[in-house]
Every structure is written in C-alpha cells, then in structure tokens.
Design brief:
Two copies of one chain form a homodimer.
Chain A: E1 4-8, H1 12-24, E2 27-32, E3 43-46, H2 52-59, E4 64-67, H3 74-82, H4 91-98, H5 100-109, E5 117-120, H6 123-132, E6 137-140, E7 151-154, H7 161-169, E8 176-179, E9 184-194, E10 200-202, E11 206-211, E12 214-220, H8 228-243, E13 248-257, E14 262-268, H9 278-281, H10 286-294, E15 308-315, H11 324-333, E16 338-341, E17 351-359, H12 362-374
C-alpha cells in the first residue's frame, strides 16, 4: 500500500505498530523523543512533541498522524487539525484521555457506571469526600498520570497535601479527582477499535492483574466472563468509543465489583498493555487494527486463535542488566512462549517486554507464561 | 537482546525477518542491493554483495551474517569465514544450494531418493539421456536459476542449444543437469531449521502448487499426508540438514509420485515461499526460527495454530499499479485473511505479496485466501 502513517512518540507502543505495518505494506514513520528509543527502527525524526512546528513538519511527511502516548498538547493537536492533517484519535476525543476530571464528567453525562467521584479543590473538600466514603478515597491528578503515577489511596487529605499546593502554584485553580475506593473482585479491560467512518470492533473482555499500579498479567478472555459480564463490558466500550468520537484503539479499564457491577476505572485512547496478548492470540492484533482504523481501512477479525492467552509483563528485568542469558533460558524452557522485548535497558519497575502463551488450557498457559517471564527476574 | 543479525540482500525474505527481529528485541541490519528495496526499513547500507570489501565492512557491524538469497559468491563467503565472522548457512552448505550438480551428486552419496539425473556436457549426451527417459527431460542450468528460470522441459537437446553454447563460453567446461520428467501426483515441501550446535526442528510437510514454475498456492499441512508421507518428508529433510551441515532454515521441495515415492526436487537454504504460511499459521514462523537458528538460540514450537492454513501468492498485481484499492477491498471481503505486501511495484509475474488464511475447514480457508488474493488480479 502507499499509505504513510506517522506516529508521535517512540516508545514500545510505536515499536509494536511496526511489524503489522511491514506486513501490510504500510510506510510507518515515528517522531521519537530521543535517539535509540524502542521504535528507533522506524524513527524518521527526533523532536519535541510539544513543539508545534516540529510536529507540523513531521505531519507533512505522512498521510495520517497517530500516537504512542496521549501527551501531545491540545494546542498542537488543534494546529494539526487546522492544517488539514488527519489526526486519530483527534483532539476532541483525546481531551477526555488527557484530563480525568473531564472524562468523569463526560461519562457521567452518558450514564456510564463509574465509582463515586468528585472534583476536590481543597483539603476540606477531600476530607469531606473521605468521610462520606467510609474513611478512604483514591485521589488522582487530573493530568499526566500513567502506570500508577499520579494515583494515591488516602485516608486523609493531608496525604496528598503537596498535590493541592501544586494546584495553587499552577495558577489555574483546578482540582484533583477523588474517587471511592471500590471493593472490586477483579479488574477487566475492554479493548475496542473504531474507524473514522464509524465502524466499531471489539476483542473479548480480558482480566488484568495490577501490581503497584502497573499491569502485570492479563488473561484473555476473562475467565467466567461469558454472558452478562462480556455484554456489559462490550456495551460500555462501544458507547464510549462512539460518544467520545474515539478513532483507533480504545482501552477501557473496568472494575468488576463484589456486588456484581461493572464500573469504568480508566480510559486509554491508544493500543494498551491489556491488549498485547492480541499480537499472538488474536487473528488481528490491536496494533494492526489501530493502523487499519487510523487509515479508515476495513477491520480484521478479532477472534482468538486459541481458547486462552496469557500475557505476563517483564517488569524491571535482571539486576545485572543482561537480557541475553534470560532470553535464551526462557526460550529453551518454554518453546510455545512468544517473547517480546522492547529494546529498553532494564531498570527497576520498567516495562521492558512481555511474554504471551496461548493454548487450550488456562492453567497451562498461565504457568508457561509465568515460567518464561520469571527468567528475567533474577 | 543485544544480538545483531546482518542479512545480505534486501528482498522480501529479509523484509519478513524484520517483524520477528523487532518482537524478539534483535537488532537486524540489511545490506541491500539498492535503495527502496523490500527490506529498506532495516537497510543500514546499500552495496554489491559480490564485493568482498563491501561485505566484510557490513559484517563488522553485526554478530552473525545470514542471507536473503543464495547468490553470494563462495570467495566472499570464505573471506567472511576467514575473518572469523559467523556465517549461517556457511559456504560448505551453501555450495549445494548454489550448484545443482553438486547437490545431486551429494544427495546421491547420501542415498536420498531423487529423479534420475545426469550431468550433460554435450548435445549428444543430452539426446542420449532423453532417449533413455521416454523422450523427454527436465534440463537445468547448474547455477543461478530460481522461480522457474534456468529450468526447461525438453524433448530434444536442440531446445537448450544456447545453454550449451554458454557453457562453452564460460571456459570452465561445465555441464547442464538433466533430470527425468517425473510423473508426480503433487508437489510437497518440507521446511526444516537447524542450529549450528546441531538441533533440528521441522514444520508439518505442506503441499505446494506451482504455476509457470513459480509457487502459487500452499496448503498446510499437506492434505492426506499424515503417516508415511509426513515421515518420509521429515526423514529426508532432517538427513539433508544434518549431512549438508545446513544452519538456519532449509526448504526441501519434493515430488510425490504417482507410484508413491517421495523424491527431492530442489533445495533452498533460507526461508522459503512454501513456508510463508508459518507467519500466521504456526506458533513460530520460519523467519523467527531462522533468526533463532543463526544466533544458535533455542527453537520455538512449530505446531500449527489452526488445523489448516492456506497461502496464496499475489503474483504480478493490478494492471494499473494501484494496490490500495485492491487491499481495502480484500480486507473488507475477507476479515480473517492476513494480507502481506512486500513494498514492491506490481509487474507481470512478480511476487509482490501473499495472503494467508487459517481455520478449521480446508475448503473454507482455501476459498477465503483465493478470494482475498483475487482482488489484486484485475
């Protein structure tokens, strides 16, 4: 094909778009933050994604612009749109991924089930919220958080006092997001893709296990989710994609509560860690589907290739920084494991890769994937 | 991983090594014949693969050298080995892929079943061979042939007279390869991979259908091959890989004769068109396995992800040169089809891509793959 897709940001999500771009014959170009990033093989430029001129110049080399992350400022996104560049997802959708208060407000208007929440501008307001919600709350900064950063569980407003001070300092007033601490049985994620022309496609809802606020394991499909749970997750995902005008891949992180409700936790408007299993486990991966979506090409099938897939993140990596030994050991020990490394240096807590195993028996694929990933934790 | 694999040649086989290299975290570099080739995204240099200094300089940037094709001259290969560069497959093995007379001679020593053959240096010798084999023969140039080039079915030696003249002109004496015209039921292919340390792995034997000497369709596994046929193909493939010291992927093209014999037709010491189905249809693709093999890393599992896979080549392409329209139509019509385009301009008979479909029913996957590929034949 002659299509040229430009990705802003050179992290592992951009990297994982490269294989399907190569397979489909799509020319992929990446504007990376610095040299030697994960997506370096497709990097045609290095520059600041907050700089309007840098991004506009990059956009001139491609047919459509999409993203490795959600941090491109609205002003830059609007400048792209004003210049006639197709941007997917566009600024009108991305604002809800960039600002959690706006997201909560909008989802509320749509009647989407969520944890109780409030915008709190003062210590007093937060303490009131905590008192009304059983003595605890989850507090989030509205902007800039990811992978557990900018999220804190508190029992008193004083525990996020510096966040309130930062709000004062930014001079815009502003507020923090307070949410009820949900009594959840497990976390789920619904992955959706939507084309600019409107078509929506979904993968099966998955279960995700977080460690320290970071996705650690994903089971696909979510065990015991057939029927009501899958239907609710699909309905929520479709509604959000359509009503917020999301284009490309949307991930909706969900709580399944102990009282059988499905509540929206977070949104991500890009390929997402909870969808990495699709590279090996689905007929069409989230990365291929994202490319198809942003080019408004027809979707591929989203059925799973095996009854079960498990994805385990490789977090941190070996203390001595050597990935070759663990990789060889993992490949030798687990011949069915699909190993993915992101070209990143090991560092405590850092996502440097993942392992996926697919098969007929959930216990076996979980064991095998964990066994392979464990070689990197020495 | 920190491994760097260098691929000589920038065609579609090098291109298709790039996705698994990215997934595994292997640094892949390509020495391309010219700018803008299929594997351009990984090209770190453009140069003449017959030039010793060019190839040696490229080899200094990588840990192991492998190939997109079998045309690197023995002298250049030996220079690499002499310089201490790991080369896979090595010159001792590659000589049998580069010279069909040597291949026939060596397979004969190993007792591998083959068509009757003879080295013929004169028109008289060839006419004698034709007379002894029912009035026809397949004549092949010993070197330089591929995709049906350098292969001719004849009933009289005069039909390849210019090939004999060329033999005289090259001043080395030399000979053509004459083979009996085998009465075959179908063609099969056995794909094998072998590590330098000795381990061998095999995919299921497949059936291939040729059109005008070019692979057109592949059915995997070969229908009605379980048992004796699969065992014979596996034994032949393993013996050749081991006895010829092949490292990396080896493809053995086979005839299944009407009198139930399995005969070796051709060898290729690289990933092969009859193995493209493994990208989507096998737990480990031939391209990933080739990378693992040349790095002497443990092999991945070679089981199929679905009972049946069919691969259909896209040959030639649309007369108007537009791939975008057919691609969009194919994706819309066949959501389970995996489309692969090689970044090549359409030209009569040229391999510009392929389609793979996997599923439970052979008739359905064949229909679906053919339907998708047909959009490119307008």
């Amino acid at each position: 094909m002659t299509f040229r897709v430009g990705v802003i940001g050179g992290g592992q999500l951009a990297r994982m778009m490269v294989p399907p771009a190569i397979e489909l014959g799509i020319d992929i170009k990446v504007l990376a933050e610095s040299e030697g990033m994960s997506a370096a093989i497709a990097a045609t430029g290095v520059g600041d994604y907050t700089d309007r001129d840098t991004v506009l110049a990059f956009a001139e080399t491609v047919d459509v612009v999409t993203f490795d992350h959600e941090h491109v400022p609205q002003a830059v996104l609007r400048a792209l749109v004003d210049a006639g560049v197709p941007v997917h997802p566009g600024p009108d959708a991305l604002q809800f991924a960039q600002d959690k208060l706006r997201m909560r407000e909008r989802l509320g208007e749509l009647g989407i089930p969520m944890p109780d929440w409030a915008a709190v501008s003062t210590v007093e307001q937060l303490d009131d919220f905590i008192a009304e919600h059983g003595g605890s709350a989850v507090v989030k900064t509205a902007r800039g958080g990811y992978d557990g950063k900018g999220v804190r569980v508190v029992t008193a407003a004083a525990q996020v006092e510096e966040w309130f001070l930062a709000l004062d300092e930014d001079g815009r007033g502003g507020a923090l997001l307070a949410e009820e601490l949900v009594d959840f049985r497990r976390e789920l994620a619904q992955l959706v893709a939507r084309r600019p022309s409107g078509a929506v496609t979904l993968w099966p809802v998955v279960e995700s296990v977080q460690q320290n606020g970071v996705c650690a394991e994903v089971f696909a499909p979510a065990p015991r989710s057939a029927g009501r749970v899958a239907e609710m997750a699909a309905r929520i995902g479709t509604t959000i994609a359509e009503e917020l005008g999301v284009t490309g891949v949307l991930a909706v992180e969900l709580f399944e509560t102990t009282d059988e409700r499905i509540l929206v936790n977070e949104l991500a408007m890009r390929p997402h860690n909870t969808g990495h299993w699709t590279i090996d486990g689905s007929t069409t991966s989230q990365f291929e589907q994202h490319l198809r979506a942003v080019l408004d090409l027809p979707f591929g099938a989203t059925g799973h290739r095996a009854p079960w897939s498990t994805m385990i993140n490789i977090l941190g990596g070996p203390a001595d920084g050597d990935l070759d030994g663990p990789a060889a050991a993992a490949l030798a020990d687990q011949p069915t494991a699909k190993l993915h490394l992101y070209g990143k240096e090991p560092r405590a807590g850092r996502k440097i890769g993942h392992v996926t195993v697919s098969g007929d028996d959930l216990d076996e694929v979980v064991f095998s994937a964990r066994a392979a990933a464990a070689f990197f934790q020495n």
